[in-house]
Amino acid sequence: MLALIPLAPLLGFLVNAFLGKRLPKSTAGGLASAAMLAAFGVSVVAVWRLAALPADARAIEQTVYTWIASGDFVLDLTLRLDPLSAVMILVITGIGSLIHIYSTSYMHDEIDSEFARYFSYLNLFAAFMLILVLGANFLVLFVGWEGVGLCSYLLIGFWFRKKSAADAGKKAFVVNRIGDYAFILGTLLIFVRFGTLDFQQLAAAIATMPAETAAFGVISIATLLLFIGATGKSAQIPLYVWLPDAMEGPTPVSALIHAATMVTAGVYMIGRNAVLFSHAPATMLIVAMIGVVTALVAGTIGLVQNDIKRVLAYSTVSQLGYMFLAMGMGAFGAGIFHLYTHAFFKALLFLGSGAVIHALHGEQDIRNMGGLKRYLPVTYWTFLIGSLAIAGVPGLAGFFSKDEILFETFAAGHWIFWTMGVVTSLLTATYMFRLVFLTFHGERRHDAPAPEHPEEESHAAPPHAAPPHPAPPHGGHLHDAPPAMAMALIVLALGSVLAGYVGVPHALGGENRLATWLAPSFQPPSAAAVEVFEGEAEAVGEEEHAALEVTLMIVSSAIALLGIGLAAFIWLKRRDIADSMSRQFAGVHRLLLNKYYVDEIYDATVVKPIVMASREGLWRGFDVRVVDGAVNGTGTLVTAGSSMLRRLQTGSVLTYAGSMFVGVVVILGYYLWR
Amino acid sequence: MIPLSHYLVVSAVLFAIGTAGVFLRRNLITILLSIEIMLNAVNLSFVAFGRQFGNLDGQIIVFFVMTVAAAEAAVGLAIVIGLYRHRESLNPDAFASLKW
Question: A-B interface: how many C-beta pairs under 8 angstroms?
Answer without folding.
Answer: 27
